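Researcher: We're teaching a course module on how sequence relates to structure. For the next exercise, students receive a sequence and then see the predicted structure as tokens, so they can try to spot secondary structure elements on their own. Here is the exercise chain.
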Amino acid sequence: MSDPLLHLPWIRTFDACARHLSFARAAQELALTPAAVGQHIRNLETRLGFALFERLPRGIRLTGIGRTYAPMVAGLLNDFSAATVALFGMQGETSVTLRCAASFASLRLPGILHAFCQAYPEIRVQVHTSIWNDNPDNARAELEIRYGTGQWPDYEVNALSQGVSYPLYPPGTDFGPDPGTTLLAMAQTAPIHILGMENLWRKLTDQLGWPGTTIQARCTVDTSATAIELVAAGAGCAIIDAQLCRLHLARGWVVRPHDIVLHHDQRHYILLPRSRIAPRPAVIILRDWIRTVMQQG
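Model: And here is the predicted structure for the students to work with:
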């Protein structure tokens, strides 16, 4: 294909300039001269018919259309690198550091990583767990999985799940002909609350038509993993994200009233730090694998 719009060196040069906001630093990354970088950008701008950068006395700045174009180009280059590795393999062994919420790491990640490691034996995954999103180990991770509302401006953010949670009860619980009434009665005796999360019990009482009903936590824990194990042991009831209770429900370790589902704004996201250095193909491969598995349910 001879269309100069698709001339890959121009596209790669634009991506490097957009990340560094400097022709000189982009030239260092690409092993080109600053003059060659400038020529690539001029060629691309001429072909597109739009200015992508403003030339300033000191440095450059993306134009409005340049800011729109930059993430599209970065995504396409990342996909191209990942697809190439997927098809032809990766030379040697490489590793990726993944920082992950502790509950997701113990309740959802094992099955995902088991299949990934079988498909990509040349990629080693180092998992660092944390309870709170502001853990100082953040800087060491090339990928992160967080739970929240998705508002992290320093990252490229992609949702992994829907905002859905279930009220969970110990095995053998009989909800009777009116699950809502039974659920409320039980929730008032032994509710478990998870620190750092919105009060889903309040949302549930509103959803079921019990506005103003107060549910005082009998036990407070700092992870969903602890909460669900307490439920399984018969110590109370808890509201847990649907992605985290799949195994416990499937094996009958906990039960839920099937006609009661709680929708909310919090969900799991996978985060790629915004950086002036393009992410390595192995990082993109792992990110896309996790996204695909999660989207399949």
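Model: If you want an answer key for the exercise: The first helix runs from residue 8 to 20. The chain has three domains: 4-87, 89-162+267-295, 164-263.
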